Amino acid sequence: MEKPCVAESRKAKARLEPATNEKRTGDTSSLLSAEEIGELFSRFAAAMPDPRTELDYVNPFTLLVAVVLSAQATDAGVNKATKALFRQADTPEKMLALGEEKVRDAIKTIGLFNTKAKNVVALSKALVETHGGAVPKDRNALESLPGVGRKTANVVLNVAFGEPTIAVDTHIFRVANRTGLAPGKTPLAVELALERIVPTRFALNAHHWLILHGRYVCKARRPECWRCLIADLCRFEPKTPSPATSGGASVN
Question: How far apart are CA 199 and CA 21, in angstroms?
Fold first, then answer.
C-alpha cells in the first residue's frame, strides 16, 4: 500500500547510491569481514529487491499510527484493526474528531489498546497544533509526539520519507547479535553499529531485510538455518538442522 511517489523515490534513491566507498565509517563492531557484510546484503538484495513494510497505510500519518499501534502486537493484528479505522480517519484532524472512545473501540483487539488510543488521539492533536497537520520529517520532532519513540521515528523516516534509518526491533536485535553482524547489548548499540557497517548502497532497505529475515527465518526459538541464505556467513553455532534430518530436534 506504499504510495507510488514514495515507492519511486525509494527506488531512485537506491539506484543513485554509489557502489564504491561502501562503508560509512571504519568498523570494529562486527564479527564479519567487510567482504562478508557486502555479500550478506547482496544476497538479501537479490532475493528481495524491493522490500516493504507489512503494515498497511495510505499516507505518512496512517503509517505513524500503524507503527505506534504495532508495539507488542503483530502487523497482521494491527492491519485488521486499522482497516476500518483508516476509512474513518486518515488525517490527524479526522482522528482528533473521531475521539478517544471511538479509536479505542476500533483497536480493542490490539494489546494495550487503552494507552494506544490515548496516544493516537494525543499525537493527532500535537500534529494539528504544532505541525499544521503534517507528519514532521525530523527525528526529534517525531520523538516529541505522544507514544513515539526512536524505533517508531526511524520506521516513519525510512518508509514514509526514504531515509536510510534502521529501526531496531526484537527481530533486528536478535539477527544482529546471533549472526555476529552487529553485536550489541542494547537496541541503540545495535542501531549505531549497523549504521557504521551497512554498505551505503544497501542502507535504505537494510531495515526491512533484517526484520523480515528475523521474522520468517532467523526465528527466536528455532532459527531455520537449513533454509537460510546467509547460513555460511552467520556465526551462530550449532546450526539448526532440518526437521527432515533431525526428527524435529530444536536449538534454543
Answer: 8
